[in-house]
Write a structure and sequence with these properties.
- The chain has 71 residues and is an alpha+beta fold.
- 14% of the residues lie in helices and 23% in strands.
- It has 2 helices and 4 strands; from the N terminus they run βαββαβ.
- The longest helix is centred in the N-terminal third of the chain and has 5 residues.
- The N and C termini lie close together (6 Å).
Length: 71
């Protein structure tokens, strides 16, 4: 199964819980800041292992800033 996530940069407060929840390591910290001054995360689906759409990242996000899509 293939998956893809969308992260709302303005809702993300940079708690990085989703970084630890993603077993594939597809979520990384951004070097840019959002309008509130937080450093949000971004989706990086490069490499051998693709996102499976397991939704662990979305479940752990306290700000509900991640949407998961499955193919």
């Amino acid at each position: 199964m293939k998956g893809h996530i969308k992260i709302n940069r303005e809702l993300c407060k940079g708690c990085y819980l989703c970084l630890h929840a993603c077993k594939k390591g597809h979520i990384v910290s951004s070097k840019e800041y959002n309008a509130k001054g937080y450093r949000p995360v971004r989706f990086n689906n490069e490499g051998d292992q693709r996102c499976t759409g397991c939704a662990l990242c979305a479940i752990t996000c306290p700000e509900i800033a991640i949407e998961v899509y499955r193919e």
